[in-house]
Design brief:
This protein is an alpha/beta fold. It has one domain: Dihydrofolate Reductase, subunit A, CATH 3.40.430. Helices cover 24% and strands 24% of the residues. Strands 4-3-2-5-1-6-8-7 form an 8-stranded mixed β-sheet. Helix 1 packs parallel to helix 3. The chain is globular and about 55 Å long.
Length: 205
Protein backbone atom coordinates (compact mmCIF):
# COMPACT_ATOMS: atom_id res chain seq x y z
CA UNK A 1 0.00 0.00 0.00
CA UNK A 2 1.11 3.52 -0.58
CA UNK A 3 0.77 5.93 2.33
CA UNK A 4 -1.26 9.01 1.50
CA UNK A 5 -2.39 11.94 3.61
CA UNK A 6 -5.29 14.37 3.26
CA UNK A 7 -5.30 17.54 5.35
CA UNK A 8 -7.52 20.59 5.48
CA UNK A 9 -5.49 23.72 6.16
CA UNK A 10 -6.08 27.45 6.11
CA UNK A 11 -4.13 29.82 3.88
CA UNK A 12 -1.80 30.49 6.83
CA UNK A 13 -1.28 26.76 7.34
CA UNK A 14 -3.48 26.19 10.41
CA UNK A 15 -5.04 22.75 10.77
CA UNK A 16 -6.24 22.91 14.38
CA UNK A 17 -9.96 22.84 15.05
CA UNK A 18 -11.01 22.69 11.42
CA UNK A 19 -14.14 20.60 12.01
CA UNK A 20 -17.75 21.60 12.38
CA UNK A 21 -17.69 22.15 16.16
CA UNK A 22 -16.05 25.24 17.62
CA UNK A 23 -15.21 23.24 20.76
CA UNK A 24 -13.45 20.45 18.85
CA UNK A 25 -9.91 21.42 19.85
CA UNK A 26 -9.30 24.23 22.36
CA UNK A 27 -5.64 23.49 23.07
CA UNK A 28 -3.47 26.52 23.88
CA UNK A 29 -6.52 28.77 24.09
CA UNK A 30 -7.57 28.22 20.47
CA UNK A 31 -11.03 29.77 20.01
CA UNK A 32 -11.53 29.90 16.24
CA UNK A 33 -12.64 26.33 15.59
CA UNK A 34 -14.96 25.26 12.83
CA UNK A 35 -13.30 27.31 10.09
CA UNK A 36 -13.40 24.40 7.61
CA UNK A 37 -16.85 23.00 8.34
CA UNK A 38 -18.51 20.78 5.76
CA UNK A 39 -20.22 23.81 4.22
CA UNK A 40 -16.85 24.90 2.81
CA UNK A 41 -16.04 23.73 -0.69
CA UNK A 42 -18.44 22.90 -3.49
CA UNK A 43 -20.09 19.62 -4.47
CA UNK A 44 -17.05 18.60 -6.52
CA UNK A 45 -14.74 18.98 -3.53
CA UNK A 46 -17.14 17.07 -1.29
CA UNK A 47 -17.29 14.28 -3.90
CA UNK A 48 -13.48 14.14 -4.06
CA UNK A 49 -13.26 13.79 -0.27
CA UNK A 50 -15.85 10.99 -0.25
CA UNK A 51 -14.12 9.18 -3.12
CA UNK A 52 -10.79 9.44 -1.31
CA UNK A 53 -12.15 7.74 1.79
CA UNK A 54 -13.85 5.06 -0.30
CA UNK A 55 -10.63 4.02 -2.02
CA UNK A 56 -8.75 3.52 1.27
CA UNK A 57 -7.67 0.02 2.21
CA UNK A 58 -6.85 1.09 5.77
CA UNK A 59 -6.57 4.22 7.91
CA UNK A 60 -3.74 5.39 10.17
CA UNK A 61 -4.33 7.98 12.90
CA UNK A 62 -2.60 9.78 15.71
CA UNK A 63 -4.41 9.36 19.01
CA UNK A 64 -6.08 12.78 19.17
CA UNK A 65 -7.49 12.57 15.65
CA UNK A 66 -8.54 8.97 16.23
CA UNK A 67 -10.59 9.98 19.26
CA UNK A 68 -12.19 12.89 17.38
CA UNK A 69 -13.06 10.60 14.47
CA UNK A 70 -14.37 7.89 16.80
CA UNK A 71 -16.74 10.36 18.46
CA UNK A 72 -17.90 11.83 15.14
CA UNK A 73 -17.97 8.76 12.88
CA UNK A 74 -17.73 5.76 15.18
CA UNK A 75 -21.45 5.46 15.84
CA UNK A 76 -24.36 4.35 13.71
CA UNK A 77 -25.72 7.89 13.61
CA UNK A 78 -26.19 9.12 10.06
CA UNK A 79 -24.37 12.23 8.83
CA UNK A 80 -26.60 13.44 5.98
CA UNK A 81 -24.74 13.25 2.68
CA UNK A 82 -21.59 11.78 4.20
CA UNK A 83 -22.58 8.13 4.57
CA UNK A 84 -19.74 6.98 2.21
CA UNK A 85 -17.17 8.39 4.64
CA UNK A 86 -18.79 6.84 7.70
CA UNK A 87 -19.11 3.48 5.95
CA UNK A 88 -15.47 3.48 4.81
CA UNK A 89 -14.25 4.31 8.31
CA UNK A 90 -16.40 1.56 9.80
CA UNK A 91 -15.51 -1.11 7.24
CA UNK A 92 -11.75 -0.64 6.82
CA UNK A 93 -9.04 -1.50 9.35
CA UNK A 94 -7.95 1.41 11.54
CA UNK A 95 -4.49 1.77 13.07
CA UNK A 96 -3.54 4.22 15.81
CA UNK A 97 -0.01 5.33 16.63
CA UNK A 98 -0.14 5.65 20.41
CA UNK A 99 1.84 4.63 23.47
CA UNK A 100 -1.06 5.38 25.84
CA UNK A 101 -4.23 4.08 24.16
CA UNK A 102 -4.96 0.65 25.61
CA UNK A 103 -8.57 -0.24 24.91
CA UNK A 104 -9.92 1.35 21.70
CA UNK A 105 -13.70 1.14 21.57
CA UNK A 106 -14.06 1.54 17.81
CA UNK A 107 -14.33 -1.89 16.18
CA UNK A 108 -11.57 -2.78 13.73
CA UNK A 109 -8.89 -0.73 15.52
CA UNK A 110 -5.31 -1.86 16.15
CA UNK A 111 -2.94 0.17 18.32
CA UNK A 112 0.64 0.41 17.02
CA UNK A 113 3.22 0.41 19.80
CA UNK A 114 6.95 -0.10 19.91
CA UNK A 115 8.91 0.58 16.71
CA UNK A 116 6.45 2.76 14.79
CA UNK A 117 8.65 3.07 11.71
CA UNK A 118 8.84 -0.71 11.39
CA UNK A 119 5.10 -1.08 12.02
CA UNK A 120 4.21 1.47 9.33
CA UNK A 121 6.70 -0.09 6.91
CA UNK A 122 5.04 -3.46 7.50
CA UNK A 123 1.62 -1.96 6.74
CA UNK A 124 2.92 -0.37 3.57
CA UNK A 125 4.35 -3.71 2.48
CA UNK A 126 0.89 -5.28 2.53
CA UNK A 127 -0.95 -5.61 -0.80
CA UNK A 128 -3.56 -2.99 -1.50
CA UNK A 129 -4.04 0.54 -2.67
CA UNK A 130 -3.83 3.17 0.05
CA UNK A 131 -3.06 3.48 3.73
CA UNK A 132 -4.62 6.89 4.43
CA UNK A 133 -3.86 9.47 7.12
CA UNK A 134 -6.44 12.18 7.81
CA UNK A 135 -5.78 15.02 10.24
CA UNK A 136 -3.07 13.79 12.65
CA UNK A 137 -0.65 16.69 12.16
CA UNK A 138 2.06 15.47 14.53
CA UNK A 139 1.92 12.02 12.96
CA UNK A 140 2.15 13.42 9.42
CA UNK A 141 5.22 15.48 10.35
CA UNK A 142 6.85 12.38 11.83
CA UNK A 143 5.98 10.27 8.79
CA UNK A 144 7.45 12.89 6.47
CA UNK A 145 10.61 13.15 8.55
CA UNK A 146 10.99 9.37 8.27
CA UNK A 147 10.37 9.26 4.50
CA UNK A 148 7.21 7.19 4.87
CA UNK A 149 4.75 9.41 2.97
CA UNK A 150 4.18 8.67 -0.70
CA UNK A 151 1.64 11.39 -1.47
CA UNK A 152 0.02 14.24 0.41
CA UNK A 153 -3.12 16.18 -0.44
CA UNK A 154 -3.70 19.66 0.97
CA UNK A 155 -7.22 21.08 0.89
CA UNK A 156 -6.65 24.80 1.35
CA UNK A 157 -9.63 26.74 2.68
CA UNK A 158 -9.64 30.44 1.70
CA UNK A 159 -9.39 31.84 5.23
CA UNK A 160 -6.58 33.22 7.40
CA UNK A 161 -7.23 31.85 10.90
CA UNK A 162 -4.43 33.77 12.59
CA UNK A 163 -3.86 31.35 15.47
CA UNK A 164 -3.61 27.63 16.11
CA UNK A 165 -1.33 24.69 15.40
CA UNK A 166 0.01 24.53 11.85
CA UNK A 167 0.75 21.49 9.77
CA UNK A 168 4.30 22.74 9.22
CA UNK A 169 5.75 24.62 12.22
CA UNK A 170 8.09 27.61 12.04
CA UNK A 171 11.09 25.36 12.62
CA UNK A 172 11.25 21.85 11.21
CA UNK A 173 12.85 19.66 8.56
CA UNK A 174 12.78 20.91 4.99
CA UNK A 175 11.21 19.00 2.12
CA UNK A 176 10.97 19.39 -1.64
CA UNK A 177 7.63 18.54 -3.23
CA UNK A 178 6.57 17.61 -6.75
CA UNK A 179 3.12 18.89 -7.69
CA UNK A 180 1.00 16.03 -9.04
CA UNK A 181 -2.38 17.73 -9.35
CA UNK A 182 -3.99 21.07 -8.53
CA UNK A 183 -7.52 22.35 -8.85
CA UNK A 184 -9.67 25.17 -7.51
CA UNK A 185 -13.36 24.75 -6.86
CA UNK A 186 -16.16 27.26 -7.35
CA UNK A 187 -15.91 28.43 -3.72
CA UNK A 188 -12.19 29.14 -3.85
CA UNK A 189 -11.03 25.96 -2.11
CA UNK A 190 -7.84 24.62 -3.69
CA UNK A 191 -6.81 20.97 -3.72
CA UNK A 192 -3.10 20.33 -4.19
CA UNK A 193 -1.58 16.87 -4.46
CA UNK A 194 2.16 16.50 -3.89
CA UNK A 195 4.78 13.78 -3.79
CA UNK A 196 7.82 14.20 -1.52
CA UNK A 197 10.98 14.75 -3.55
CA UNK A 198 13.85 14.76 -1.08
CA UNK A 199 15.48 17.91 0.24
CA UNK A 200 15.12 21.27 -1.53
CA UNK A 201 17.97 22.77 -3.50
CA UNK A 202 19.06 26.19 -2.25
CA UNK A 203 20.74 28.91 -4.25
CA UNK A 204 24.39 29.52 -3.48
CA UNK A 205 26.03 32.91 -3.21
Amino acid sequence: MKLTTMTQISVDGVMQGNGGASEEDRRSGFDRGGWAAMGKGDDGTHALIKQTYQRADAFLFGRRTYELFASAWGTDADVPGWEPVRRALHDRPKYVASTTLTDPAWAGTTVLRGDLAAAVADLKAKPGGELQVHGSGALIRWLLANDLVDELTLIVIPVVVGQGARLFPDAGPDLALDLVDSRTDSKGVTIQVYRPAGRPQYATA
